[in-house]
Specification:
Length: 232
């Protein structure tokens, strides 16, 4: 039975909720335009800061039915679900899209007007993008992997002894990676070289675009490169 995984709980397997309908709202683009006196058009600065379109948060909505047969069971299950995720920030994975997750805060509501079934609704105020289930520094998970279009990215605990060249495969949107180094390193991309200090580090000038980006790491130690993968 199709359902939704919320944190470590599955709506059907753990709570017996039958999925009736759901909607995945698109995030609203955060556009920026300036009217120019004397011109019929406007100056569009939407992508001026980062080179990509920024978005507001999105809303996920799920409607379920619960065959509870009596009011006491409804009250018990409703309370269990609410105690688990109402107001909580959770990772959301759809059975229909198992390779990706949404990150957002849940709201639960329910109603019952007969002795057979009740309605349960869960909405999620989520980040604008869904992410690949396995980040580039986490243990790889084959569940949900698309063997036709999927790309295995394993950039965790990369050993560097002097110099190491590798190729990063970017996602559909440009992304600023997070580097975690055991010791200070240098990173070369094209003709530019950046210093990477020990510990966790981001540099907004280092942007990994879609497609392949060759890099060279120089130093001694381990480096993990986190790319989350953003998709609408």
């Amino acid at each position: 039975m199709l359902g939704v995984k919320i944190g470590d709980k599955h709506t059907y397997q753990d709570w017996g909720l039958r999925l009736l309908s759901y909607s995945i709202g698109m995030p609203e683009p955060q556009t920026k335009t300036i009217e120019v006196p004397g011109m019929s058009s406007v100056l569009d600065l939407t992508e001026a800061l980062t080179g990509t379109v920024p978005y507001k948060r999105r809303t996920l909505s799920f409607t379920f039915s619960l065959r509870d047969l009596r009011y006491e069971k409804w009250q018990s299950v409703y309370s269990e679900i609410a105690n688990y995720c109402h107001g909580q920030r959770m990772r959301i994975v759809l059975d229909t899209d198992p390779g990706y997750y949404y990150d957002g805060r849940c709201t639960v509501s329910s109603s019952k007007d007969n002795n057979v079934v009740s309605d349960v609704s869960i909405s999620v105020d989520a980040e604008p993008f869904k992410h690949e289930l396995s980040s580039t520094v986490e243990p790889w998970q084959w569940d949900g992997f698309n063997f036709i279009t999927g790309v295995i990215r394993d950039y965790g605990d990369t050993q560097v002894n002097g110099s190491k060249s590798m190729t990063l495969v970017g996602f559909s949107r440009p992304e600023v990676p997070t580097f975690t180094c055991s010791a200070a390193m240098q990173l070369t991309i094209g003709s530019k070289t950046y210093s990477l200090p020990a510990g966790e580090f981001q540099n907004s000038d280092i942007i990994i675009p879609s497609g392949e980006t060759p890099i060279t790491l120089t130093g001694t130690g381990t480096v993990s490169i986190l790319l989350k993968g953003d998709y609408l």
